[in-house]
């Protein structure tokens, strides 16, 4: 069997993209031996510059990028892959860019499969969501985005497998944010003010540069919307009912410096919420899709400490999937936490799934050639 060369075009060389390059370079020999595939990065980009190297990156990629990267448009990248006769193309979106998402359809139409850690394409309006899928079907391409919801935990794949086996999913609920998992896990177990734990989460890099993105509920709302659409609910982000963790007197309307200096305002309301719970309960910030009542919510709840959600530790995510066959005993997936290595490994997993599919197709073509 001949080695299949896969050309990976990487948009975004920040935390996730950088870790992905390192993981691929370290495991290249392993993939050759175990899977008979060769993963190459002929093009990598940040938001404004691209570095082109037809034969793929070397360990000196950072220095090469700094020296030789040039301004680009997505059209230039498509043209380069055509001119160089590059086949088996996978575009990786390791950005948080709304701009790049606009090029997905053009990439698909020009021969690219897509792997994304970016949530945006799946949370825009449902017409765009359908248009991507229509093009994927027409051009026989794959689009995988496991890490955009579960980071390293295979949530989307599990839900998809259940749904397309004909199983009726009745409810999905869980803790989808690593940063909010960390904050409420510590808040439940330690006698510290909410603001101190929030600041620790920020210092450890568990939140966005502006932690209001997580506290607003947006991040969780987008994740549950993606899952709802996986089970073919035709919903929009505006239909997700979000109870924000921000306060009327400390929210997104305030300047960054006001927000940074007045985090103590969180302490009293969250202390009250903690003290007024039932005994042996803890607070958890969850996303919930209730298929029966057709509602999607993001909210703060109080859970028994010995329940699946209540026992959560560290930065773990946990997802309960209720199905008709499983009744009141949900399928539970837990783990993942956060960190660029975990997420990059998840992106790599998606790349390898698509590579496996390409390899199967390639072998079929080879067999057909032999028989002709
Ligand atoms: N960091 C994490 O733990 C997780 C991140 N994600 C998602 O992964 C994506 C990447 O996250 P990070 O690596 O942490 O971000 P980052 O900010 O470290 O890196 C983003 C990279 O994208 C580049 N970029 C921005 N716009 C671009 C464009 N239009 N074209 C090409 N490149 C562009 C930037 O220059 C930078 O190199 C985001 O969508 C994030 O939400 C998902 C799960 C967890
Ligand atoms: N902020 C997110 C990380 C990426 O999605 C989280 O806390 O889970």
> What is the number of beta strands?
13
CATH names the topology of the largest domain as Dihydrodipicolinate Reductase, domain 2
How many domain units? 2
Which CATH first-tier class of the largest domain would you pick?
A: Alpha Beta
Order of helices and strands: EHEEHEHEHHEHEHHEHHHHEHHEEEEH
Tell me the radius of gyration: 22 Å
Look at the helices and sheets and give the structural class.
alpha/beta
Number of helices: 15
Report the bound ligands by name, code or SMILES. 1,4-dihydronicotinamide adenine dinucleotide, ligand LTNE7NMQ
How many strands, which pairing sense, and closed or not: the largest β-sheet?
Answer: 7 strands, mixed
Strand content of the residues, in percent? 15-25%
Query: What is the H level of CATH, i.e. the homologous superfamily of the largest domain?
Result: Dihydrodipicolinate Reductase, domain 2
- N/C terminus separation: 18 Å
Would you kindly provide a brief summary of this structure?
This protein is of the alpha/beta class. The chain contains 15 helices and 13 strands.
Helix and strand topology:
Layout: E1 4-11, H1 15-35, E2 37-45, E3 49-52, H2 61-68, E4 70-71, H3 74-83, E5 89-93, H4 98-101, H5 104-109, E6 112-116, H6 126-138, E7 143-144, H7 147-150, H8 155-164, E8 169-175, H9 178-189, H10 194-203, H11 212-215, H12 218-230, E9 241-242, H13 256-261, H14 267-275, E10 281-290, E11 295-304, E12 317-323, E13 331-335, H15 340-371
Helix pairs in contact: 1-15, 9-10
1,4-dihydronicotinamide adenine dinucleotide (NAI) binds at residues 11-17, 45-47, 94-97, 99-100, 117-118, 147-148, 151, 338, 340, 343.
């Amino acid at each position: 069997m001949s080695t299949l060369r896969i050309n990976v075009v990487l948009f975004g060389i920040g935390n996730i993209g950088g870790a992905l390059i390192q993981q691929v370079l370290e495991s290249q020999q392993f993939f050759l031996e175990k899977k008979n595939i060769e993963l190459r990065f002929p093009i990598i980009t940040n938001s404004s510059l691209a570095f082109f190297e037809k034969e793929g990156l070397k360990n000196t990629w950072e220095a090469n990028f700094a020296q030789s990267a040039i301004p680009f448009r997505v059209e230039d990248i498509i043209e380069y892959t055509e001119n160089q006769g590059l086949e088996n193309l996978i575009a990786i979106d390791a950005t948080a860019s709304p701009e790049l998402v606009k090029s997905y359809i053009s990439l698909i139409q020009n021969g690219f499969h897509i792997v994304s850690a970016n949530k945006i394409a799946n949370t825009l309006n449902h017409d765009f969501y359908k248009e991507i899928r229509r093009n994927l079907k027409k051009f026989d391409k794959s689009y995988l985005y496991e890490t955009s919801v579960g980071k390293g935990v295979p949530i989307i794949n599990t839900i998809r497998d259940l749904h397309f086996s004909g199983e009726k999913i009745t409810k999905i609920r869980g803790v989808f944010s690593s940063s909010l998992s960390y904050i409420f896990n510590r808040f439940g177990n330690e006698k510290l003010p909410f603001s101190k734990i929030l600041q620790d989460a920020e210092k450890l890099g568990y939140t966005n540069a502006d932690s209001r993105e997580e506290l607003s509920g947006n991040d969780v709302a987008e994740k549950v919307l993606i899952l709802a659409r996986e089970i073919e609910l035709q919903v929009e982000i505006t239909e997700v009912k979000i109870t924000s963790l921000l306060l009327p007197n400390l929210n997104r309307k305030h300047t960054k410096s006001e927000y940074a200096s007045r985090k103590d305002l969180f302490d009293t309301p969250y202390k009250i919420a903690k003290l007024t719970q039932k005994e042996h309960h803890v607070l958890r910030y969850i996303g919930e899709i209730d298929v029966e009542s057709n509602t999607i919510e993001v909210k703060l709840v109080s859970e028994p400490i010995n329940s699946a959600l209540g026992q959560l530790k560290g930065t773990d995510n946990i997802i309960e999937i209720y199905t008709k066959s499983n009744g009141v005993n949900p399928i539970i997936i837990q783990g993942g936490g956060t960190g660029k290595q975990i997420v990059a490994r998840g992106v790599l997993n998606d790349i390898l799934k698509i590579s496996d599919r390409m390899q199967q197709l390639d072998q079929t073509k080879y067999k057909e050639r032999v028989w002709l």
